[in-house]
Amino acid sequence: MNKLTTRKEYDEIKAKVEALIAEATDKGMLEPEMDNEYTRQISDLSKLMAQYEDEYMDILPLREKTPLIRSIEDYFYAHNMKQKEGAQYLGINESVFSQILSGKRRITMPIAKRLHSKLGINADMILKYA
Q1: Residue ranges of the domains in the chain?
Q2: How do residues 69-90 score in pLDDT, each as one tens digit?
Q3: What is the model's pTM?
Q4: What is the CATH topology of the domain spanning 67-129?
Q5: How many CA atoms does the CB half-sphere of 24 hold within 13 Å?
């Protein structure tokens, strides 16, 4: 099979992968760095599933934290401030701040200015990652 095109095919392959994982685990054939028929088959089928998920399912990719978000978090961690206190310090709503930190909301110019003036974050980094 080169490509999954229906949810039924996807579900069948998913069940097969889960069964292979269980069987390989029972036999001790799923240790890190192992290369055997189980690991190759699980890998191949998982790639088919991932391709189907990318094309047909609305699954958001995992977000990687940008250096800017890490800098914001590092500042508040170093100052022993919780997220709620950080939002208050920046003068923004806590839920807005949470969405910014999780990558669900973009940083506006007024917030960018506060990050620079209050947290001392480099303006170039803010421009690059905001």
Answers
A1: 7-56, 67-129
A2: 999 999 999 999 999 999 999 9
A3: 0.53
A4: 434 Repressor (Amino-terminal Domain) (1.10.260)
A5: 20
